[in-house]
Design goal:
The chain contains one helix and nine strands; from the N terminus they run αβββββββββ. It is mainly beta and about 140 residues long.
């Protein structure tokens, strides 16, 4: 039986009608779960707690890292993850060896902070980064 234009229109209308119902059933992400991004290039990881100057957790801060790895550091990877309501985030799959270590930058609005890790010495690192206003 050939598909007619009318059949396609009806199918499209029914799909559009029921699509919002399907989307409404997906729960929003849990603000307490720790956001994780996986670099997929090694066994190491870094856990972060991002705070403000008063030691309060910072929600939606961004933690970034640029990784140069492999022979002659020819491979490059940029990762970014946001923090949850408790100021926590995690990056997994980091390489065990890097030529220059890993420099993590955290920021939110006009505040920033940083941390450094040598994964060959601390493969499972944990950092608390206090964000401070950017110098002008």
């Amino acid at each position: 039986m050939p598909i007619t234009t009318r059949t396609l229109r009806i199918t499209l209308m029914l799909t559009m009608l029921f699509l919002p119902v399907v989307e409404a059933q997906n729960p929003s992400p849990d603000p307490k779960s720790i956001p994780v991004i996986d670099g997929g290039i090694g066994p190491c990881s870094a856990d972060f707690t991002i705070t403000d100057a008063n030691n309060a957790p910072v929600y939606a801060a961004k933690v970034r890292v640029h990784i140069a790895y492999g022979f002659l550091s020819a491979h490059k990877l940029d990762l970014e993850v946001g923090t949850n309501a408790a100021g926590k985030a995690r990056i997994t799959g980091l390489p065990e060896k890097t030529k220059q270590g890993l420099f993590f930058q955290a920021s939110e609005g006009d505040r920033e902070g940083s941390a450094f890790d040598d994964p060959s010495k601390t493969c499972k690192a944990s950092f608390t980064i206090a964000l401070e206003k950017k110098p002008q």
